[in-house]
UniProtKB/TrEMBL annotation:
Gene3D superfamilies named in the record: 3.40.50.2300
Protein name from the UniProt record: Putative Extracellular ligand-binding receptor
Organism: Megalodesulfovibrio gigas (strain ATCC 19364 / DSM 1382 / NCIMB 9332 / VKM B-1759)
Domain Leucine-binding protein, residue spans: 28-373
Protein keywords: Amino-acid transport, Receptor, Signal, Transport
Signal peptide per UniProt: 1-25
Amino acid sequence: MGRLIRRIAPLALLAALVFPAQLFAADPIKVGGLFASSGKSAFVGTASKLVAEMTVKQINAAGGILGRPLEMVIYDTESDPNVALQKARQLVEKDGVLAIIGPTTTGGGMAIKQYTEAQQIPSIMTVGGDAIIAGGKYGPFLWTFKVPQRTETAVKKIYALLHEKGLKTVGILTAQDGFGQDGMMHLEAQAAHYGLTVVAKETLDPKDSDYSAQAFKLTVGKPDAVVVWVIGPSGAIAQKNFKALPNYTGLVVQCHGQPDPKFIELAGAASEGALMPGTKLMAPDALAEDDPQRPVIKQFLADYTANGYDKEFPINTHSGYALDALLLLKAGLEKAGAVDRAALRDALEQLKGVVGVSGVFSMTPEDHNGLDEASMLMLTVKDGVFRVAQ
């Protein structure tokens, strides 16, 4: 996709990207966007909205989808699951969208999922937690897909590295929210497979400003590594708390939501040596020339910079999720050959080899994410920047 406008002006609460009718003979394909442009998750949601707007413009400049322009109606979820559900209903019942991209958070995703499943609305979510596509007690996910790697995938990536290093014991610190609970479940379930024993568990409230007590309790038994499972500034706080302990020399590993220059800024010197799984977007120069993601990532980085987004929202592991969701939407509609919700759902479930920023997506009826451990890198902070962990 080529470079387009230098800067897209921020839209208000409701935004519609409409293109000159004379460029297309058919009516636009209308899709919804749910992004947290305000509230605690705005650092992810606002950038995702900008990338979605950029991608819609690029798709239309290249001829649209099935000869029709793509129009996106965007609402701010305010980082509130209740607002996310309210706006999802508005997108479906008032705006008449074909599908929904987003929301930003796992809580928002779970809040809208029962409704979108009942209404049979294809939803390509940009949330981190697995619950939205886990099935079982979490409900069906026939119409629900997600772009970020599954929690289980990130846990396997972490544990594989710990196993390679010959480590045997681990402590776990997770957030008291849906994302954290999801992390705790998979961190416990996968440990034995990698020869690891969970020796201590603690939880944290992301609204708190210090986790020294939890850090101390977790390290009393001197685990070989501790894993911190939380998104946002809390990860940096915990990193500093662990590094301040005089008698703990084990590894500190963050989750796949933390690869972000903001983490390094907030954690400061304590970030040095931190480990975490992340998308290849965080280490593009380390990719092999024949890696199919390399040209996609390089072009995305060029476009992101050309639009000036990097000045306010430096590239992080979340940056490409909205683009990937729209690429999947486009590939699904082209495979379906029709602008129809059921046909789109069926096509999305059968997509194979769709190359995005976050990985190469290959869906199945059982897996509505389509990414495995090979789509991730284990990263470390060295000299104040992210590098591939050795």
